[in-house]
Amino acid sequence: MSTVQIIRDYILENYLFTSDQSVLQNDTSFLESGIIDSTGILEVISFLETEFGIRVEDEEMIPENLDSVDNLVAFVARKKRAA
Amino acid sequence: MCGVAGILDLESGRPVLRAELARMVDMLRPRGPDDSGFHVGDRVGLGHARLSIIDLEGGRQPIHNEERTVWTVFNGEIFNYLELRAELIARGHRFYTRSDTEVIVHLYEEHGEDFVQHLNGQFAIALWDEPARKLLLVRDRPGILPLYHTSEDGRFLFGSEIKALLPVLPAPPRLNSAALDQIFTFWAPLSPNTIFDGIQEVSPGEMVIVRDGKVSRRRYWDWTFPTEARDYWQEPEAELAERLRELLVDATRLRLRSDVPVGAYLSGGLDSSALSAIIHRHGATRLRTFSIGFEEQALDEAAYQRTMIEHLGAEHSDIHCRNEDVGAAFLQAIERTESPILRTAPVPMSLLSGLVREQGYKVVLTGEGADEVLGGYDLFKEGKIRRFWARQPASQWRPLLLKRLYPYLDITRQGSVYLRQFFGKGLEHSGAPWFAHIPRWSTTSLCKEFFAPELAAQLVERDPLAELEAALPAAIRDWHPFNQSQYIEAKLLMAGYLLCSQGDRMLMANSVEGRFPFLDHRLIEFANRLPPTLKMRVLREKHLLKRAMAGYLPPAIVERHKQPYRAPDISAFFGRAATPAYVDELMGRAAIARYGYFDPERVERLVKKIRLGRAVGYKDNMAFVGILSTQAWHRHFVEGFYNNFKRDQRESMLAQPSVVGG
Question: Do residues B552 and B400 lie in contact, with contact meaning Cβ atoms separated by under 8 Å?
């Protein structure tokens, strides 16, 4: 499965509690739309670390890396290239 | 403490049956296990379930005046009844009991509806004025004791709890979807709404008047704050601290009046420690304290409790609350709250009142109200920082002050940008009275994504914030922002959740009466005129209370960071012990679909996520407890209506009406 699909399924399953693909756009801000609250972001980070074998540094916890499906996909790709 | 219930015929022409009153009062048995009494008059009936605390022999209710034309049933305490009684006797009134209840009828004869202005206490009163054919329902100022009413088929019904009304209703109640929407925003319905469609509460500080078939409301008291700087106390801080201590000592002393021994809850926080210290120094008997400890270290305050117990030499009992204890007591707690709740925090309070009762006590003093009256909540700090930040929204360092606020949160991992995003919500509303509440309410509202599409469609036109705004007093716009937050907190969360679901109902579950010195209206009125800087000095909460009580308490208690009282939520149901069977049943697809409030697929995924151990956020915890409690509410009150509330209907309908009560 592609990175984008893995991430979409995870977000849909765990934060939107649905399999309906139409409710999530890849550029939707998680924070602005309320999909993920301030504690929820910790769960997302654990998921990325387990699923993709990357390590997220404190200074990387910024919306540019984490705040939408698109941002997550790009961030994971960058991390994997750097590894 | 006690329970009251009654019926007034508006236009049905049906006689009020004593048996009907008996069924209503039966529902209130835990509030009043010791005795019951009735008065059935012409088209009116009053019932009472009694817990004997003052005048154990003579305090039987209903109570009447000299001519038997004014009757009352009453739940609560009039703490200044000795003074009132002496004044009334001096004016020629004759008393036939020693009870505090009797001052109500004579005060009413003297002052009419304004009699309530003379009461210092916690009360829910029903008063029948026979010559005027007028029924009054009156509730205390802050909303300590509950009182509900409804009109049904030409009759007006009232009771201390909603469950007292159900045996005389013809059909199962329905969920009030607007109230559910409000609970899933504010944690409480907007008064006088309840989760039961068509059933209302008497709002705190109000009376409901029923006369000539018409029902009206009158507000006799409200929290009010200065609109001009010169209206705040101008006295030096030391003098105000002295007055605060004197008032608190007097409020506590009045609340130790009782014909049975009085104990105290000791959480280890500033407020309950202050009360315990006052009782220790000014009370007549040895201090007796009760507390609760938690298995989860983050929730436990046992170390501070020990500090105080040693300091005061109190005789102390405590219970240890394991996570699964909360799960085991949850269903019964919802039968008592009669409302969905978003956190399990009320549940351990029922275990604590059970301990009190087991130790032979039926009255306890608690520190409830201090945070609202004297400015203790983190939300007040949060509001202050966010307002400061809103003046310079681009500032990088202003939001970092929030880190000072939540030292127990793992903020480094969350990163300051996320802090900004979360607490920065609604920064543009810095002029709104509910500005400080935005982060809490917007997080809570996220739980509404679990509403079933049909329910969501019903709510689409509604806006809880606009409904709240319409209910706020006009003057609130002119108050200091700190006072605005206090008002909203006192009226919504305290009156609508803390004092009822977490307070009265959990105490009454074990027939224990709570008394709240910080909610003495003289203390509230005094505190409302304190400059906000004396409540929160920079970010030091309850500044003046700390100063006032410094001589009574160990420094470790005065200086500790406030820890909000919390209980295990999801972990109460999913942990070491097996998940209770009712959880699987109520959260299962079938029950979710049958009751119709929530989306079965989403709930299923939430439960799956919880089982995988992935649910750690506030939202998941609140959503789970909110859904489970709504389901439990439906099962007991709607689906279980005939079984739980109408079982002996048949026999009762055959019973003979009695003319005079006993």
Answer: no
B107 and B118 in contact (C-beta within 8 Å)?
Answer: yes
- Cβ B22 vs Cβ B41: under 8 Å: no
Residue B418: predicted pLDDT: 66
The answer, for A50 touching chain B at a CB cutoff of 8 Å, is no
Residues in chain A: 83
In chain B (662 residues long), the average pLDDT of successive 10-residue segments reads 93 94 94 90 93 74 94 95 96 93 97 97 97 97 98 96 97 97 97 98 98 96 96 96 97 90 91 94 87 86 88 92 96 98 97 96 95 89 83 77 61 59 76 89 92 96 93 95 96 97 96 97 98 88 93 90 86 93 98 98 95 85 97 98 84 45 32
pLDDT at B406: 62
B45, B53, B41, B43: which is closest to B25 by C-alpha? B45
**The two structure tokens encoding residue B590:** 């079938």
Structure tokens at B518: 């910080």
Identify the residue whose tokens are 């608690």. B366
DSSP string, B133-169: TEEEEEE-SS--S--EEEEETTEEEEESSGGGTGGG-
**End-to-end Cα separation, chain B, in angstroms:** 20
DSSP string, B311-357: HHT-EEEEEEE-HHHHHHHHHHHHHHH-S--SSSTHHHHHHHHHHHH
- The Cα–Cα gap between B563 and B305 comes to 13
Residue B657, pLDDT score: 45
Inter-residue long-range contacts of B329-332, CB under 8 Å, 24+ positions, other chains counted: B330/B572, B330/B573, B330/B580, B330/B628, B330/B629, B330/B632, B331/B582, B331/B632, B331/B636, B332/B509
Closest Cα in chain A, distance from residue B607 (Å): 10
What would you report as the CA-atom Rg of chain B, rounded to the nearest whole angstrom?
A: 25
- CA pair distance B509, B29, nearest whole angstrom: 10
The string of pLDDT tens digits covering residues A31-83 is 888 888 767 777 888 899 999 999 988 788 888 898 899 999 999 999 999 87
Closest residue by Cα to residue B138 from B153, B152, B121, B154: B121
Sort strands B44-50 and B35-41 into parallel, antiparallel or unpaired: antiparallel
Interface check for B453 against chain A (CB to CB < 8 A): the answer is: no
Q: Which of B453, B434, B446 is nearest to B177 (CA)?
A: B453
Q: What gap in Å lies between CA B531 and CA B233, rounded to an integer?
A: 7
CA dihedral B209, B211, B213, B219 (to 10 degrees): -20
Min Cα–Cα distance to chain A from B398, Å? 18
Question: E strand or H helix at B302, and its extent?
Answer: helix B302-312
Q: Which residues of A touch B412 (CB under 8 A)?
A: 58
Region of residue B355 (phi > 0: left; psi between -120 and 50: alpha; otherwise: beta) = alpha
Alpha carbons B136 and B130: distance in angstroms, whole number? 11
Which among A11, A13, A15, A17 is the top mutation candidate for probing chain B, defined by the most B β-carbons within 10 Å of its own β-carbon?
Answer: A17
Helix (H, G, I), strand (E, B) or coil at B643: helix
pLDDT score of B1: 67
Q: What's the pLDDT score for residue B378?
A: 81
User: CA A63 to CA B419: how far, in whole Å?
Assistant: 11
Of residues B494, B505, B492, the one with CA closest to residue B190: B492
Total beta-carbon pairs less than 8 A apart between chain A and chain B? 72
pTM: 0.92
Contact B189, B197 (CB under 8 A): no
| Catalytic-residue membership of B2 | yes
